[in-house]
Amino acid sequence: MPRKTNTRERLIATAAELFCRQGYAHTGVNEIMQQAKTTSGSFYHFFPTKEDLVLAVVDHIGESLDTEVFGADLSAATDPVERVFAVIDSVRRHLVDNDFALGSPLGTLAAELSASHPQVRERLAGLFAGWNDRMQFLIEESGIRLPSDLDRHALSEFILSAVEGAALQARARRSLAPFDATVAELRRHFELLAATRQPTLAPEARPRPAPAARRSTADWRAW
User: For 63-75, what is each residue's pLDDT tens digit?
Assistant: First the structure.
């Protein structure tokens, strides 16, 4: 049987949605308690301050990234490059499923809280770093399909920046057009990278060194 959601989990899930939909500053504790159907005693038992709650929300988002973005969405794709785009597609579905109201939860919280809440900023930076590491791992699995001198970490940073920006534009314009255009350019970028890779020749196709000229028998003293 499904595990019953406890009060702490309910508060975190409710706060996560409200923070991403309407912002941290515009979401009051009373509204969170009302939506989560809990009391102030329960709230302050788990979260002495609102910042304690948002830190738990950041961790909750990180767990969701692991299970929903880097988990089930990758099982159907066997090609390493397609697994990269499966991750990106999960962000696209998130936009559609929430009618463009949520966008990128990490980006939303980072934009609002990075300057005023150092602890939140550090926790978010850690999640972004983890996102990059997971994406870099997928890129590295592509092996010889990409140039050997390609900076895989820089490419993963580039993908994250492109996807976050595309999600922000899609949310602002309530349209998938900017997101899809960005994904199309990312695909083109991968194609161009693959096209610049130096092909590795099979052993039988590699040019053999020219044989050394034979010495005349008259040159036997020089042998």
Answer: 887 777 776 556 6
Q: Are 34 and 43 in contact (CB under 8 A)?
A: no
At 109, which helix (H) or strand (E)?
helix 105-113
Residue corresponding to tokens 């499923």:
97
Question: What pTM did the predictor assign?
Answer: 0.76
Under a CB-based contact definition with an 8 Å cutoff, are residues 140 and 152 in contact?
yes
Q: How far, rounded to the nearest angstrom, does the alpha carbon of residue 214 sit from its chain's CA centroid?
A: 62
| CA separation for the pair 42, 7 (Å, rounded) | 8
Distances (CA, A) of 31 to 22, 28, 36, 103: 12, 5, 8, 21
How many other CB atoms sit within 10 Å of the CB of residue 181? 12
- Cβ count within 10 A of residue 209: 5
